[in-house]
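User: quick one
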Amino acid sequence: MRLDLKAEKRRREQTRTLVEACDRRDCLLSGQVSSCSLALPGCSMTSQKKLQGLVAATVTPMTQDREINLAVIGQYVDYLVNEQGVRSVFVNGTTGEGLSLSIQERKQLAEEWVAKGKEKLDHVIVHVGALSLPESKELAKHAAEIGVDGIAVIAPSFFKQVNKDALLAFLRDVASEAPGIPFYYYHIPPLTGIQINAEELLDGMTEQIPSFQGVKFSDRNLLDFGRCAAKNSSGQFALLYGVDEQLLSALAMGATGAVGSTYNYFGKANNVMMEAFAKGDFCTAQKYQFCIQEFLGFVIAQGFGVPQIKAVMSLVSGIPMGPPRLPLSSASEEFVAKVRAKLEGLKNCSYHLL
Amino acid sequence: MRLDLKAEKRRREQTRTLVEACDRRDCLLSGQVSSCSLALPGCSMTSQKKLQGLVAATVTPMTQDREINLAVIGQYVDYLVNEQGVRSVFVNGTTGEGLSLSIQERKQLAEEWVAKGKEKLDHVIVHVGALSLPESKELAKHAAEIGVDGIAVIAPSFFKQVNKDALLAFLRDVASEAPGIPFYYYHIPPLTGIQINAEELLDGMTEQIPSFQGVKFSDRNLLDFGRCAAKNSSGQFALLYGVDEQLLSALAMGATGAVGSTYNYFGKANNVMMEAFAKGDFCTAQKYQFCIQEFLGFVIAQGFGVPQIKAVMSLVSGIPMGPPRLPLSSASEEFVAKVRAKLEGLKNCSYHLL
Amino acid sequence: MRLDLKAEKRRREQTRTLVEACDRRDCLLSGQVSSCSLALPGCSMTSQKKLQGLVAATVTPMTQDREINLAVIGQYVDYLVNEQGVRSVFVNGTTGEGLSLSIQERKQLAEEWVAKGKEKLDHVIVHVGALSLPESKELAKHAAEIGVDGIAVIAPSFFKQVNKDALLAFLRDVASEAPGIPFYYYHIPPLTGIQINAEELLDGMTEQIPSFQGVKFSDRNLLDFGRCAAKNSSGQFALLYGVDEQLLSALAMGATGAVGSTYNYFGKANNVMMEAFAKGDFCTAQKYQFCIQEFLGFVIAQGFGVPQIKAVMSLVSGIPMGPPRLPLSSASEEFVAKVRAKLEGLKNCSYHLL
Amino acid sequence: MRLDLKAEKRRREQTRTLVEACDRRDCLLSGQVSSCSLALPGCSMTSQKKLQGLVAATVTPMTQDREINLAVIGQYVDYLVNEQGVRSVFVNGTTGEGLSLSIQERKQLAEEWVAKGKEKLDHVIVHVGALSLPESKELAKHAAEIGVDGIAVIAPSFFKQVNKDALLAFLRDVASEAPGIPFYYYHIPPLTGIQINAEELLDGMTEQIPSFQGVKFSDRNLLDFGRCAAKNSSGQFALLYGVDEQLLSALAMGATGAVGSTYNYFGKANNVMMEAFAKGDFCTAQKYQFCIQEFLGFVIAQGFGVPQIKAVMSLVSGIPMGPPRLPLSSASEEFVAKVRAKLEGLKNCSYHLL
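Assistant: Done. Structure below.
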């Protein structure tokens, strides 16, 4: 199938001209041009409060008898802002054991984060997903009433035969309870088992959900992610990557930010990495990424779920996050000891990390 | 296709007599009696109201706008008893879209089934499992208050790293809210992804949950099932198989009954199969099982989930079960047409089935 | 632990007599006889040498340097026949590490089994499957030349996108190299990942492969298995179940025999179970099945693959089966010690088992 | 669309000069140079013939009766070099249906590629992996005899319980048959099901296999990949990424090259992308990656395996690659028509691609 080579050559020259008008380097230096897809603060859009950079998926502090502990949330906010340079949070998500809480508890937590985050945090995003549509709607309505900066919804995952249209309808019904609040779709197929590409959902969401503002993308499928990024050429929405241990690869593919549990304690290190990437300084970016990976590879090999995240966060921040709620069980003391030793042993890396 | 109710009543009385002659413990000790772990009604225990035989996992009737439709439940009870010979139900389970409903809706449904089932049904088992422990406890408490005949709990499945002890603790906490109500563990690893053998959980449950009465076992792993049966030598609990399309294989391995969605419309056929099996008439038992499989193999190949179950039940019973709630979407008209044709085309089998 | 050979011979003769009275077709038409799809030797067909009963999936004996050890195969044959009452073998299959051997080695092994099995074994089935069609054809041709009693072929499993027609064409091409030799399809989706129902393949095989004689069905999907059995109403082919630890459930669903690694050392126990089942004595059948399951559940929980099978067989038979070939590694001494203790500790069961 | 060969040669020479100025180790220590783990040709090591850049995983041309077609390999070599700018090949791998061929055929193909590639190709890497260790060793020995530039071995995947030490022993035994030939480990867990991190294997391979030179890494787990890259700080081995549709993300994580089937026809486009990346021109790199993804996302949604790769390659190159061998079946005509239309319809992208 040989192409007509002359026509092709002409066409390519025209395109090249077009392309020269879009000088990415300008974008990178000035921060004025929107179409590079980087995580550079301000590199993209109009909205004063566009969600970008690092977003901590917060744990839910609990007392020793596994009840929610609202008392430490003020301290938690200060720690994130002052110690980690993280000014946005994702509350009641997977890390926050949102689906293990009652509706009432989820509301209380959302209220506390909004109250304590006032004038300190840029974005308090509240996850309002639930298996039950009426409950998810109730949570969305409440979130709007208390003035959150965004709501997010995971695909309901008890049934696996969910199709694209039904999922869109579910998301739309929830979003419509909070029409003025930015809506984020929380895409995490490895956990939900719902295998619908984010890219396929994007068109539907931008059309059907006026408040749609972005995706928390927690999957290793960077073909799907890249196709979302390709549709985000004017930076119209947030593409927040959610597989923390390989963030650098997603930045290269067009991530505009990141949501994850590790930003609770590795916020600083990831901020440096993202800045290095934005400046084109790959050596530094890789150095930080590899350090982060050395630690995360280690804990993942031990089994790294919410109980372990809570333990690491308690250890690093000094704030008592407590045990997880059932059906999860506390991280072992052996795990905590190993983590402590690993952090100390990361001679070449640990100053980057903490 | 109404059953002759008098004959039916007579048959049940005869069975009861027959059963008294069959002392399960004798069978196990002497090895002389052949029907030792069978689903013969009453072949095992002391309790007047031991759960056994077929239990219909009920669908939740909905209106066209996907709200619960309590109005048809009375009719539904009569259909099960009179047309299908099924006198026990499992409400708000997977088939009943329990986790897609609000807590309030689940309570309303439980109340309606208890009310309409009075003096008609032998057992109204209400599923009270939820991802959230406080919600599950609230439901268990309510179930006890309204006088259900049993509660059942599925493993909370959002997090997959649940271990045996934590799962037991979760189940125990729920059961303790309804201490006088028989407790059933709902084991369904293919759906929950929680891969803990039922046999491993059994010891813990018999020790820690005084109200423990049995397992709804929805898995093809008949090694695990057989090991449960081996622990049930005096018939102390119910072993209810839940993979409808291969029930006969589980009867051979010690099932004492069955819970499933297909008993809504294939109750009669399965009752005949179970009776044939109990009498040692394998030819008849297989004949019925193979007919049932011909139909179920056909619909499973089309994709057979809750929406399709609702459609089949509406078609066969004539009671409008309505669409499923989001995130599920209605079965296609094409599916319904195929089912209708298949049922008619099952020349050699359909008289067994309907 | 030698069987009383005279008593054994007598038992086999009696069974044969019993069997002549059982005409399978009568059973199916009249519905009067209860044991219609059973594994009763001879209960079904015309062919004098129909494959039925237990078939041992043999391990491949190896020397300490992991080379095949032909020297012990004569002893192996005698052990199976005299100690286990097993008179058919499945050579070079999964248990036999067939795909880890060279073509030349597979031929040598087939030759040795045929030679040593002469006038001792009823059936020497040789597995000739390979990832490569030309190699599989070469093996089939060789098997025919040396006079095996049957060949078997697994689905080539490197590529997972194999469709039904292509798989049938592959099987047909292999079978056509040995047109006079009974052909068995080896169905094992959990290992191959090729998810095509056996029942769908059956029609194609009976039409396209004149030498087709049966299926080794190694899957827990007993809907699929039952649908095969329903197509086997006149006992025209062998339905050999291959998930040893739940054989009883498959007998109930129409299995006509069994192929598996555990029949190397639990042949006797399984023979008793099958006979009890055939006589309708469920108490005894379950008793044996549960004993077998207690042992197999234990070893499966330790990790039970070919290396462990070889170790168990060496321990029980006293014949040195040696280590497996790379990429497999030997069972640990700890495993062997545990197995030894478990066999001794099975107080209530061990007399059934060994 | 022939490349200007002289210009191309000049470009390559310049790059080499440029590269000499770029000392990777300096980069890593000083942090001043931005392109530290890049795929810049020559940016790393001493060896004159270090494998880097794009490596085409070649299809195996076949005649209409599915026999290997050696006749077109000369033409194939010229196409890759002249039309795609690809000068290294990976022969008899997954794309090449290596495991579907006989040992004899694999040898013939290796010989033909070496013969036709002489003075045209930089690297002819021959995959010599097999399920059977003796066969894999035989192939390695042959490859050494005919003077290939490297051998590669996939994990034998029939058994899934392979552990790290046994896998290393298997690889070492194969490598030792070709001690003077660079050895590459072919890591592809999604296909083999062998879930051992490449990073864990690295230490073992560098210690035990003197000829070890690198990894073809075909997995989306970029934590594992990054940890390999962190161990490659002095560029001592090749890290060749193998998930073509997301190559850019792996470049960011330290890939030094890429092996894949799409470089047969998208070599040029990927070369431009890699060069843009190496220069820090992310706008251009993303633009090319997104174009490539638009096409690959489309074909993957149709089902994109070896048959479809062969069809695309036949279409784009004009060289008749023929059907695949059984158990694979030819791509449908409908697929080919869709691909043709898609390529034409990629208005904004196709000039980049072809």
